[in-house]
Amino acid sequence: KELAKLNEYNKQINELQIEKEKEKMRSNLLRAISHDLRTPLTGMIGASSTYLEAKDQRIQSNGSDTQPHVKKVPEPLEEVVAEAIQRYQKRYPDSELKVKIPEDFLMVPMDPTLIEQVIMNLLENAWVHSGSDAPIELDIKEEGNKVVFYIRDHGNGIAPERLDQLFDGCAGALDHESRKGMGIGLSICKSIVMAHQGDVYARNYEDGAEFSFSLPMDEKELTEEKEL
């Protein structure tokens, strides 16, 4: 009986943790929509529809894990990146991009719509918040059993003491004027990447900032879709 009670208690704690994580994600999605209401109409429509679709259908819980998941299918990396770049260049035609992508044809398990949005958000942050009109670099590499996306700008960089706060959803977490307003978009990126069982990072380098995120290539990482 005691063991049964303990198992039931652990189950209840786990369910509460799952609900807490899902509520946090819902909150981030809604905040992101509100944030995009202040951006140009074309961008607002595209981002808002993606966020709403993600909230209702794409980001799921696997039932036994506190980390939300998405339903992933192998997608051609080059096509997903090309679609994200096309959307970005339509919105920011004056921005110059330097893109490097693996020569090998790679099929990467992902939700393509959500990953396109991550790429779009990070490119947008680099252009809008770096304080520089120098070309932005998008460098994608196959590293072991994962694919890593690097987005670099040649601008003001990020205050070192703020690096750990970039992805917490606090738009006011950064004290540099050129970086204000980026927090909400980055919190969405983190939610999406983490739901893909990937990682997201930010760092300063020589003359700018670098954001990166990874996606696992292992087929067994594919998750079954479950109702949110």
Short description:
With 228 residues, this protein is of the alpha+beta class. Helix content is 43%, strand content 20%. It has a five-stranded mixed sheet. Strands 1-2 form a two-stranded antiparallel sheet. Strands 3-5 form a two-stranded antiparallel ribbon.
Which terms summarize this structure?
228 residues, alpha+beta, five-stranded mixed sheet, two-stranded antiparallel ribbon, 5 helices
Mean pLDDT: 75
The end-to-end distance, rounded to whole angstroms, is: 32 Å
DSSP summary, beta strand count: 9
Shape: globular
User: What strand order characterises the main sheet?
Assistant: 4-6-7-9-8
Order of helices and strands: HHEEEHEEHEEHEE
Low-confidence stretches: 35-49, 51-57, 171-183, 221-228
Number of helices: 5
Strand content: 15-25%
The amount of helix comes to 40-55%
- Estimated radius of gyration: 18 Å
| Helix-strand makeup class | alpha+beta
Major beta-sheet overview: 5 strands, mixed
Provide a descriptive summary of the structure in words.
By secondary structure, the protein is an alpha+beta fold. The protein has helices at residues 2-36, 41-58, 77-91, 112-129, 183-195, and strands spanning 59-60, 69-70, 73-76, 97-100, 107-110, 136-143, 146-152, 200-205, 208-216. The radius of gyration is 18 Å and the shape is globular. The model is unreliable at 35-49, 51-57, 171-183 and 221-228 (pLDDT under 50).
